Amino acid sequence: MDKVFQIDDLNLFYDDFQALKHIDLEIYRNKITALIGPSGCGKSTFIRCLNRMNDLIDGVKMDGCIRFDDEVCNLDGYDVINLRKRVGMVFQKPNPFPMSIFDNIAYGPRRQGVKDKATLKETVIKSLKQAALYDEVKDDLNKSALSLSGGQQQRLCIARALAMEPEVLLMDEPTSALDPIATQKIEALISELKEKYTIVIVTHSMQQAARISDYTAFFYMGELREYDATDKIFKAPKLKQTEDYITGRFG
Amino acid sequence: MERIRFQEMLSRLKGEVTSMLKDVTDQFNRLYEALESMDKTKAEAIISFDEAINEKEDKINEDSFLIIAKECPVASDLRMIMTAIRIANDLERIGDYACNLAKYIIHTTTKHEYNKAILDYFKPLMAMFDIIQHAYLENDVVEALKVAKMDERIDGIYENHVKKFIRILKHEVDISASEAGRILFVIKQLERTGDHLTNISEAIIYCVRAERLTLN
To answer: Which of A234, A243, A250 sits opposite B2 (nearest CB)?
Structure first.
Protein backbone atom coordinates (compact mmCIF):
# COMPACT_ATOMS: atom_id res chain seq x y z
CA MET A 1 0.00 0.00 0.00
CA ASP A 2 1.10 3.55 -0.72
CA LYS A 3 2.69 5.10 2.36
CA VAL A 4 2.54 8.82 3.06
CA PHE A 5 4.51 8.66 6.28
CA GLN A 6 6.98 6.08 7.43
CA ILE A 7 8.14 6.41 11.01
CA ASP A 8 11.09 4.39 12.27
CA ASP A 9 12.24 4.14 15.86
CA LEU A 10 10.91 7.54 16.85
CA ASN A 11 11.75 8.71 20.38
CA LEU A 12 10.65 12.01 21.85
CA PHE A 13 11.58 13.63 25.15
CA TYR A 14 10.11 16.58 27.02
CA ASP A 15 13.33 17.41 28.89
CA ASP A 16 13.96 14.19 30.84
CA PHE A 17 10.54 12.69 30.31
CA GLN A 18 10.31 10.27 27.42
CA ALA A 19 6.89 10.78 25.83
CA LEU A 20 7.35 8.51 22.79
CA LYS A 21 9.30 5.26 22.82
CA HIS A 22 10.59 3.51 19.70
CA ILE A 23 7.59 4.19 17.51
CA ASP A 24 7.48 2.36 14.17
CA LEU A 25 4.42 3.18 12.10
CA GLU A 26 3.29 3.63 8.53
CA ILE A 27 0.50 5.98 7.53
CA TYR A 28 -1.27 4.96 4.32
CA ARG A 29 -2.43 7.32 1.59
CA ASN A 30 -6.15 8.11 1.31
CA LYS A 31 -6.85 6.21 4.48
CA ILE A 32 -8.09 7.41 7.84
CA THR A 33 -5.78 6.42 10.66
CA ALA A 34 -7.09 6.81 14.20
CA LEU A 35 -4.79 7.15 17.19
CA ILE A 36 -6.35 5.98 20.42
CA GLY A 37 -5.16 5.49 23.98
CA PRO A 38 -5.65 6.90 27.47
CA SER A 39 -4.67 10.50 28.30
CA GLY A 40 -0.92 10.96 28.41
CA CYS A 41 -0.22 7.95 26.17
CA GLY A 42 1.60 10.07 23.57
CA LYS A 43 -0.95 10.13 20.76
CA SER A 44 -1.19 13.94 20.55
CA THR A 45 2.57 14.25 20.86
CA PHE A 46 2.90 11.78 18.03
CA ILE A 47 0.47 13.54 15.69
CA ARG A 48 2.35 16.81 16.27
CA CYS A 49 5.57 15.12 15.10
CA LEU A 50 4.04 14.67 11.66
CA ASN A 51 4.02 18.39 10.87
CA ARG A 52 6.77 19.24 13.36
CA MET A 53 4.55 21.24 15.67
CA ASN A 54 6.71 19.99 18.54
CA ASP A 55 9.56 22.15 17.21
CA LEU A 56 7.71 25.07 18.79
CA ILE A 57 7.87 23.55 22.29
CA ASP A 58 10.91 24.26 24.48
CA GLY A 59 12.84 21.29 25.78
CA VAL A 60 11.64 18.82 23.15
CA LYS A 61 14.28 16.42 21.84
CA MET A 62 13.61 13.87 19.18
CA ASP A 63 15.49 11.06 17.48
CA GLY A 64 14.56 8.43 14.96
CA CYS A 65 13.33 8.95 11.44
CA ILE A 66 10.13 10.31 9.94
CA ARG A 67 9.80 10.01 6.19
CA PHE A 68 7.13 12.05 4.39
CA ASP A 69 6.70 11.00 0.78
CA ASP A 70 9.96 9.01 1.08
CA GLU A 71 11.88 12.06 2.23
CA VAL A 72 13.24 12.39 5.77
CA CYS A 73 11.35 15.36 7.19
CA ASN A 74 12.66 15.58 10.76
CA LEU A 75 16.13 16.89 9.88
CA ASP A 76 17.38 20.46 10.27
CA GLY A 77 17.22 22.14 6.91
CA TYR A 78 13.98 20.46 5.84
CA ASP A 79 11.48 23.09 4.69
CA VAL A 80 9.10 23.10 7.67
CA ILE A 81 6.85 25.82 6.25
CA ASN A 82 6.30 23.72 3.16
CA LEU A 83 5.74 20.64 5.34
CA ARG A 84 3.00 22.41 7.29
CA LYS A 85 1.43 23.56 4.03
CA ARG A 86 1.27 19.95 2.84
CA VAL A 87 0.29 18.57 6.24
CA GLY A 88 -2.59 20.65 7.60
CA MET A 89 -3.95 20.51 11.10
CA VAL A 90 -7.30 20.90 12.87
CA PHE A 91 -7.40 21.22 16.64
CA GLN A 92 -9.68 20.17 19.44
CA LYS A 93 -11.29 23.55 19.99
CA PRO A 94 -12.39 25.42 16.90
CA ASN A 95 -10.00 28.36 16.59
CA PRO A 96 -11.22 30.70 13.86
CA PHE A 97 -9.35 33.99 13.50
CA PRO A 98 -11.36 37.02 14.66
CA MET A 99 -12.15 38.06 11.12
CA SER A 100 -14.76 37.29 8.47
CA ILE A 101 -15.52 33.80 7.19
CA PHE A 102 -14.02 34.76 3.84
CA ASP A 103 -10.83 36.18 5.33
CA ASN A 104 -10.32 33.16 7.57
CA ILE A 105 -10.12 30.90 4.56
CA ALA A 106 -8.27 33.34 2.32
CA TYR A 107 -5.68 33.92 5.06
CA GLY A 108 -3.38 31.07 4.10
CA PRO A 109 -3.47 31.58 0.32
CA ARG A 110 -2.90 35.33 0.84
CA ARG A 111 0.14 34.58 2.99
CA GLN A 112 1.35 32.39 0.17
CA GLY A 113 1.15 35.43 -2.12
CA VAL A 114 -2.17 34.86 -3.90
CA LYS A 115 -3.60 38.32 -4.59
CA ASP A 116 -6.04 37.79 -7.46
CA LYS A 117 -9.54 38.31 -6.04
CA ALA A 118 -11.25 35.86 -8.37
CA THR A 119 -8.73 33.13 -7.50
CA LEU A 120 -9.17 33.80 -3.78
CA LYS A 121 -12.94 33.70 -4.06
CA GLU A 122 -12.75 30.46 -6.00
CA THR A 123 -10.51 28.93 -3.30
CA VAL A 124 -12.82 30.11 -0.50
CA ILE A 125 -15.94 28.68 -2.15
CA LYS A 126 -14.25 25.41 -3.08
CA SER A 127 -12.89 24.95 0.46
CA LEU A 128 -16.24 25.75 2.07
CA LYS A 129 -17.95 23.27 -0.22
CA GLN A 130 -15.40 20.58 0.60
CA ALA A 131 -15.93 21.24 4.30
CA ALA A 132 -19.71 20.92 3.83
CA LEU A 133 -20.27 24.43 5.16
CA TYR A 134 -20.91 26.42 2.00
CA ASP A 135 -24.70 26.03 1.89
CA GLU A 136 -24.99 27.30 5.45
CA VAL A 137 -22.85 30.43 5.03
CA LYS A 138 -22.90 31.31 1.33
CA ASP A 139 -24.98 34.46 1.90
CA ASP A 140 -22.83 35.85 4.71
CA LEU A 141 -19.22 35.28 3.81
CA ASN A 142 -18.38 38.67 5.30
CA LYS A 143 -19.92 37.82 8.66
CA SER A 144 -17.52 37.33 11.55
CA ALA A 145 -16.40 33.71 11.86
CA LEU A 146 -16.94 34.02 15.61
CA SER A 147 -20.70 34.33 15.08
CA LEU A 148 -20.87 30.74 13.78
CA SER A 149 -21.88 27.81 15.98
CA GLY A 150 -19.18 25.53 17.40
CA GLY A 151 -19.80 22.86 14.76
CA GLN A 152 -19.74 25.44 11.97
CA GLN A 153 -16.56 26.99 13.38
CA GLN A 154 -14.87 23.58 13.33
CA ARG A 155 -15.90 23.01 9.72
CA LEU A 156 -14.58 26.49 8.96
CA CYS A 157 -11.24 25.47 10.46
CA ILE A 158 -11.27 22.38 8.26
CA ALA A 159 -12.09 24.58 5.24
CA ARG A 160 -9.21 26.88 6.23
CA ALA A 161 -6.85 23.91 6.32
CA LEU A 162 -8.15 22.64 2.96
CA ALA A 163 -7.60 26.04 1.33
CA MET A 164 -3.87 25.30 1.46
CA GLU A 165 -4.50 22.16 -0.61
CA PRO A 166 -2.69 19.87 1.79
CA GLU A 167 -2.05 16.18 1.19
CA VAL A 168 -2.53 15.17 4.79
CA LEU A 169 -4.96 16.44 7.40
CA LEU A 170 -4.07 15.95 11.06
CA MET A 171 -6.97 16.20 13.45
CA ASP A 172 -6.46 16.32 17.19
CA GLU A 173 -9.78 15.40 18.80
CA PRO A 174 -11.72 17.49 16.27
CA THR A 175 -15.17 16.73 17.71
CA SER A 176 -14.58 16.59 21.45
CA ALA A 177 -15.93 20.12 21.93
CA LEU A 178 -18.98 19.56 19.71
CA ASP A 179 -22.53 18.33 20.22
CA PRO A 180 -23.63 14.99 18.70
CA ILE A 181 -25.17 16.48 15.56
CA ALA A 182 -22.13 18.62 14.79
CA THR A 183 -19.97 15.57 15.53
CA GLN A 184 -21.96 13.53 13.04
CA LYS A 185 -21.48 16.18 10.38
CA ILE A 186 -17.72 16.33 10.94
CA GLU A 187 -17.49 12.53 10.88
CA ALA A 188 -19.39 12.37 7.60
CA LEU A 189 -17.11 15.07 6.26
CA ILE A 190 -13.96 13.20 7.32
CA SER A 191 -15.18 10.07 5.54
CA GLU A 192 -15.73 12.09 2.36
CA LEU A 193 -12.38 13.86 2.60
CA LYS A 194 -10.41 10.64 2.48
CA GLU A 195 -11.11 10.43 -1.25
CA LYS A 196 -8.60 13.22 -1.68
CA TYR A 197 -6.64 13.42 1.54
CA THR A 198 -4.86 11.23 4.01
CA ILE A 199 -6.29 11.75 7.47
CA VAL A 200 -4.75 11.08 10.85
CA ILE A 201 -7.11 11.63 13.76
CA VAL A 202 -6.56 11.55 17.50
CA THR A 203 -9.75 10.62 19.28
CA HIS A 204 -10.92 9.76 22.77
CA SER A 205 -14.09 8.26 21.37
CA MET A 206 -13.54 4.58 20.70
CA GLN A 207 -16.78 4.51 18.75
CA GLN A 208 -15.58 7.36 16.56
CA ALA A 209 -12.39 5.47 15.76
CA ALA A 210 -14.45 2.35 15.02
CA ARG A 211 -16.93 4.25 12.85
CA ILE A 212 -14.69 6.31 10.64
CA SER A 213 -11.14 4.97 10.54
CA ASP A 214 -9.50 2.36 8.32
CA TYR A 215 -6.54 1.79 10.63
CA THR A 216 -6.28 2.14 14.37
CA ALA A 217 -3.13 2.65 16.42
CA PHE A 218 -3.34 2.00 20.14
CA PHE A 219 -0.82 3.99 22.20
CA TYR A 220 -0.05 3.29 25.83
CA MET A 221 2.53 5.04 28.01
CA GLY A 222 4.47 6.38 25.06
CA GLU A 223 4.52 3.10 23.17
CA LEU A 224 2.64 2.01 20.11
CA ARG A 225 1.17 -1.20 21.47
CA GLU A 226 -0.98 -2.37 18.59
CA TYR A 227 -1.58 -1.15 15.05
CA ASP A 228 -3.93 -2.89 12.66
CA ALA A 229 -6.95 -2.55 10.41
CA THR A 230 -9.74 -0.97 12.47
CA ASP A 231 -12.05 -3.92 11.79
CA LYS A 232 -9.51 -6.26 13.33
CA ILE A 233 -8.87 -4.06 16.36
CA PHE A 234 -12.56 -3.80 17.20
CA LYS A 235 -13.44 -7.43 16.41
CA ALA A 236 -10.53 -9.20 18.06
CA PRO A 237 -7.39 -7.26 18.96
CA LYS A 238 -4.20 -9.23 19.44
CA LEU A 239 -3.24 -7.82 22.83
CA LYS A 240 -5.22 -8.11 26.02
CA GLN A 241 -4.25 -4.53 26.86
CA THR A 242 -5.86 -3.23 23.66
CA GLU A 243 -8.93 -5.33 24.40
CA ASP A 244 -9.13 -3.93 27.93
CA TYR A 245 -8.88 -0.38 26.62
CA ILE A 246 -11.43 -0.62 23.80
CA THR A 247 -13.91 -2.51 25.95
CA GLY A 248 -13.60 0.20 28.58
CA ARG A 249 -11.98 -1.91 31.29
CA PHE A 250 -9.37 0.75 31.90
CA GLY A 251 -8.55 4.25 30.77
CA MET B 1 -12.54 -2.64 37.06
CA GLU B 2 -14.42 -0.04 35.03
CA ARG B 3 -17.93 -0.18 33.56
CA ILE B 4 -19.36 -2.14 36.48
CA ARG B 5 -22.97 -1.84 35.29
CA PHE B 6 -21.99 -3.15 31.87
CA GLN B 7 -20.11 -6.08 33.41
CA GLU B 8 -23.19 -6.91 35.46
CA MET B 9 -25.38 -6.87 32.35
CA LEU B 10 -22.99 -9.25 30.60
CA SER B 11 -22.83 -11.70 33.49
CA ARG B 12 -26.60 -11.61 33.84
CA LEU B 13 -26.87 -12.48 30.14
CA LYS B 14 -24.43 -15.34 30.57
CA GLY B 15 -26.55 -16.57 33.49
CA GLU B 16 -29.68 -16.52 31.32
CA VAL B 17 -28.02 -18.60 28.62
CA THR B 18 -26.68 -21.06 31.21
CA SER B 19 -30.16 -21.41 32.67
CA MET B 20 -31.77 -21.98 29.24
CA LEU B 21 -29.10 -24.56 28.47
CA LYS B 22 -29.92 -26.37 31.69
CA ASP B 23 -33.67 -26.28 30.96
CA VAL B 24 -33.23 -27.80 27.52
CA THR B 25 -30.88 -30.46 28.93
CA ASP B 26 -33.52 -31.28 31.56
CA GLN B 27 -36.17 -31.59 28.84
CA PHE B 28 -34.03 -34.23 27.15
CA ASN B 29 -33.53 -36.09 30.42
CA ARG B 30 -37.30 -36.13 30.91
CA LEU B 31 -37.76 -37.15 27.31
CA TYR B 32 -35.51 -40.17 27.80
CA GLU B 33 -37.53 -41.27 30.82
CA ALA B 34 -40.79 -40.73 28.96
CA LEU B 35 -39.54 -42.72 25.96
CA GLU B 36 -38.36 -45.66 28.05
CA SER B 37 -41.87 -46.29 29.34
CA MET B 38 -43.77 -44.42 26.57
CA ASP B 39 -45.30 -42.38 29.41
CA LYS B 40 -47.86 -39.93 28.05
CA THR B 41 -48.15 -37.88 31.24
CA LYS B 42 -44.43 -37.21 31.23
CA ALA B 43 -44.66 -36.35 27.51
CA GLU B 44 -47.37 -33.79 28.22
CA ALA B 45 -45.24 -32.19 30.93
CA ILE B 46 -42.44 -31.76 28.36
CA ILE B 47 -44.78 -30.03 25.92
CA SER B 48 -46.14 -27.63 28.52
CA PHE B 49 -42.63 -26.68 29.70
CA ASP B 50 -41.60 -25.58 26.19
CA GLU B 51 -43.28 -22.20 26.59
CA ALA B 52 -40.86 -21.31 29.40
CA ILE B 53 -37.92 -22.12 27.11
CA ASN B 54 -39.30 -19.90 24.35
CA GLU B 55 -39.69 -17.07 26.85
CA LYS B 56 -36.05 -17.45 27.85
CA GLU B 57 -34.99 -17.06 24.24
CA ASP B 58 -37.05 -13.88 23.95
CA LYS B 59 -35.48 -12.52 27.13
CA ILE B 60 -31.96 -13.26 25.91
CA ASN B 61 -32.66 -11.52 22.60
CA GLU B 62 -34.24 -8.53 24.31
CA ASP B 63 -31.42 -8.16 26.85
CA SER B 64 -28.75 -8.52 24.14
CA PHE B 65 -30.47 -5.83 22.10
CA LEU B 66 -30.50 -3.47 25.07
CA ILE B 67 -26.83 -4.04 25.91
CA ILE B 68 -25.84 -3.36 22.29
CA ALA B 69 -28.00 -0.24 22.16
CA LYS B 70 -26.85 1.16 25.48
CA GLU B 71 -23.25 0.07 25.89
CA CYS B 72 -21.76 -0.17 22.38
CA PRO B 73 -19.87 -3.39 23.13
CA VAL B 74 -16.86 -4.34 21.01
CA ALA B 75 -14.42 -7.24 20.62
CA SER B 76 -14.84 -10.07 23.19
CA ASP B 77 -17.87 -8.39 24.77
CA LEU B 78 -19.65 -8.16 21.44
CA ARG B 79 -18.72 -11.76 20.60
CA MET B 80 -20.14 -12.87 23.94
CA ILE B 81 -23.46 -11.20 23.13
CA MET B 82 -23.63 -12.54 19.57
CA THR B 83 -22.88 -15.99 20.97
CA ALA B 84 -25.70 -15.68 23.51
CA ILE B 85 -28.17 -14.83 20.73
CA ARG B 86 -26.96 -17.68 18.56
CA ILE B 87 -26.99 -20.28 21.34
CA ALA B 88 -30.48 -19.22 22.44
CA ASN B 89 -31.69 -19.60 18.86
CA ASP B 90 -30.26 -23.14 18.60
CA LEU B 91 -31.62 -24.08 22.02
CA GLU B 92 -35.11 -22.88 21.14
CA ARG B 93 -35.03 -25.13 18.09
CA ILE B 94 -33.77 -28.09 20.12
CA GLY B 95 -36.63 -27.42 22.56
CA ASP B 96 -39.10 -27.73 19.67
CA TYR B 97 -37.60 -31.07 18.72
CA ALA B 98 -38.12 -32.30 22.29
CA CYS B 99 -41.80 -31.30 21.95
CA ASN B 100 -42.16 -33.13 18.65
CA LEU B 101 -40.77 -36.28 20.26
CA ALA B 102 -43.14 -35.86 23.20
CA LYS B 103 -46.04 -35.56 20.74
CA TYR B 104 -44.87 -38.77 19.12
CA ILE B 105 -45.00 -40.54 22.49
CA ILE B 106 -48.59 -39.35 22.95
CA HIS B 107 -49.84 -40.35 19.52
CA THR B 108 -47.86 -43.41 18.43
CA THR B 109 -49.31 -46.89 18.20
CA THR B 110 -46.10 -48.49 17.01
CA LYS B 111 -44.73 -51.54 18.83
CA HIS B 112 -42.31 -50.55 21.54
CA GLU B 113 -39.35 -52.56 20.23
CA TYR B 114 -39.23 -50.25 17.19
CA ASN B 115 -39.43 -47.14 19.30
CA LYS B 116 -36.33 -48.31 21.12
CA ALA B 117 -34.30 -47.16 18.10
CA ILE B 118 -35.03 -43.62 19.29
CA LEU B 119 -33.23 -44.26 22.59
CA ASP B 120 -29.94 -44.97 20.79
CA TYR B 121 -29.38 -41.24 20.30
CA PHE B 122 -29.62 -40.27 23.91
CA LYS B 123 -26.28 -41.46 25.20
CA PRO B 124 -24.22 -39.32 22.81
CA LEU B 125 -26.72 -36.44 22.97
CA MET B 126 -26.69 -36.26 26.77
CA ALA B 127 -22.89 -36.35 26.74
CA MET B 128 -22.93 -33.43 24.28
CA PHE B 129 -25.29 -31.45 26.51
CA ASP B 130 -22.99 -32.01 29.50
CA ILE B 131 -19.88 -30.95 27.60
CA ILE B 132 -21.57 -27.84 26.24
CA GLN B 133 -22.79 -26.76 29.66
CA HIS B 134 -19.26 -27.02 31.00
CA ALA B 135 -17.59 -25.51 27.91
CA TYR B 136 -19.93 -22.51 27.91
CA LEU B 137 -19.48 -21.80 31.59
CA GLU B 138 -15.69 -22.18 31.55
CA ASN B 139 -14.97 -20.88 28.02
CA ASP B 140 -13.35 -24.26 27.38
CA VAL B 141 -12.48 -24.55 23.69
CA VAL B 142 -10.88 -28.00 24.01
CA GLU B 143 -14.09 -29.44 25.45
CA ALA B 144 -16.24 -27.65 22.88
CA LEU B 145 -14.24 -29.25 20.08
CA LYS B 146 -15.18 -32.73 21.38
CA VAL B 147 -18.83 -32.09 20.58
CA ALA B 148 -18.24 -32.28 16.83
CA LYS B 149 -16.65 -35.72 17.24
CA MET B 150 -19.72 -36.93 19.14
CA ASP B 151 -22.00 -35.56 16.44
CA GLU B 152 -20.28 -37.91 13.98
CA ARG B 153 -21.46 -40.82 16.14
CA ILE B 154 -25.01 -39.53 15.98
CA ASP B 155 -24.79 -39.19 12.22
CA GLY B 156 -23.55 -42.81 12.07
CA ILE B 157 -26.50 -44.08 14.12
CA TYR B 158 -28.88 -42.06 11.98
CA GLU B 159 -27.55 -43.47 8.71
CA ASN B 160 -28.06 -47.03 9.95
CA HIS B 161 -31.57 -46.26 11.13
CA VAL B 162 -32.51 -44.64 7.86
CA LYS B 163 -31.42 -47.77 5.98
CA LYS B 164 -33.33 -49.98 8.42
CA PHE B 165 -36.58 -48.02 8.34
CA ILE B 166 -36.51 -47.48 4.60
CA ARG B 167 -36.31 -51.25 4.23
CA ILE B 168 -39.33 -51.51 6.51
CA LEU B 169 -41.10 -48.79 4.52
CA LYS B 170 -40.61 -50.77 1.34
CA HIS B 171 -41.72 -54.14 2.62
CA GLU B 172 -44.06 -53.12 5.44
CA VAL B 173 -42.86 -55.91 7.73
CA ASP B 174 -44.25 -55.68 11.27
CA ILE B 175 -45.09 -51.99 11.09
CA SER B 176 -46.86 -49.92 8.47
CA ALA B 177 -45.16 -47.51 6.09
CA SER B 178 -46.75 -44.57 7.87
CA GLU B 179 -45.44 -45.79 11.23
CA ALA B 180 -41.96 -46.22 9.82
CA GLY B 181 -42.26 -42.76 8.26
CA ARG B 182 -43.16 -41.24 11.60
CA ILE B 183 -40.19 -42.88 13.33
CA LEU B 184 -37.94 -41.58 10.56
CA PHE B 185 -39.33 -38.11 11.21
CA VAL B 186 -38.53 -38.18 14.93
CA ILE B 187 -35.07 -39.66 14.56
CA LYS B 188 -34.33 -36.97 11.98
CA GLN B 189 -35.10 -34.45 14.72
CA LEU B 190 -32.60 -36.14 17.01
CA GLU B 191 -29.98 -36.05 14.27
CA ARG B 192 -30.71 -32.32 13.83
CA THR B 193 -30.39 -31.86 17.60
CA GLY B 194 -26.80 -33.09 17.23
CA ASP B 195 -26.22 -30.50 14.49
CA HIS B 196 -27.59 -27.69 16.64
CA LEU B 197 -25.43 -28.77 19.57
CA THR B 198 -22.46 -28.68 17.21
CA ASN B 199 -23.49 -25.15 16.19
CA ILE B 200 -23.48 -24.20 19.84
CA SER B 201 -19.98 -25.57 20.30
CA GLU B 202 -18.87 -23.54 17.24
CA ALA B 203 -20.43 -20.45 18.82
CA ILE B 204 -18.52 -21.07 22.06
CA ILE B 205 -15.25 -21.42 20.15
CA TYR B 206 -15.99 -18.21 18.24
CA CYS B 207 -16.73 -16.41 21.48
CA VAL B 208 -13.43 -17.44 23.06
CA ARG B 209 -11.07 -17.44 20.11
CA ALA B 210 -12.72 -15.14 17.55
CA GLU B 211 -12.32 -17.91 14.96
CA ARG B 212 -15.17 -19.21 12.90
CA LEU B 213 -15.01 -22.98 12.53
CA THR B 214 -17.40 -25.20 10.65
CA LEU B 215 -17.49 -28.45 12.52
CA ASN B 216 -20.37 -30.22 10.79
So the answer is: A250
